[in-house]
Amino acid sequence: MNRPRGNLAAGLALGGIILFLGFIAPFLYPAAPYALHPAQALQAPSLAFPLGTDELGRDNLALVLSGGFATLVVALPAAVLAFATGLAYGLLSGLAPAWLDKILMRLLDVVLALPSLVVLLFFAALVTLNNTSLILLLGFISWPGLARLVRNETLAQRGRDFILAAEQAGAGRVYLARVHLLRVIAPVLVVNGTFMVGDTIFALSALSFLGLGVQPPKVSWGSLLDSALNIIALDPWWLILPPGLLVFGSLLAASLTGQGLLRRWGNVR
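Predicted structure:
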């Protein structure tokens, strides 16, 4: 197995495990994530509690699985929203007249100049936090990079013979984008969409770690990591490692998949 296929296979396998833990495993593991067992508080992993318990006596495995569902059910739609927004903006700018393209690019430069995490924290502190608002926040903060890439790819393709021939035949901009451009830049879109999933999971985990993500009583991987680090003096390694490894695993899955796709399509030698 060559390296590109190895990266792709490893990324897809790891991504499949993450999705299984987030969407299927919570329904297969019978323990209630928010049930309290005060007498078993802060117990290390055992047969009764495979990942131990937290300071309130809650089953940590059930919490991690529930947190995975809460994380992915926000991060994945946010990635889709960011992808659609960046794609639409990039195509609009790349196919627009030169004067409108310049205006759209200057606006994009302003957005790109803003520190993403600071902007995210600012708006997260202003709005009521729920799944819908988190999806909107993460989606609308993550699209600018893709928009610039799509715009540049669109401009690069507009000078090709088949595009010029279609324009001379009377093809409109929507037709050009739908029939020709999207087909040509599909590899770039798939690769960057994969990376975008990892970015949104990380951004949501960072927000939850700071208390501005998924709100109590629900938990996410970020909030579980924050809670564990608050009692780090007690050395609850079984509370720190699982959510931390799952966030890292999500980023690694996105990275390996994206790199594998990129190398497979020959964009990286």
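Summary: Residues 111 and 144 are 7 Å apart (CA to CA).
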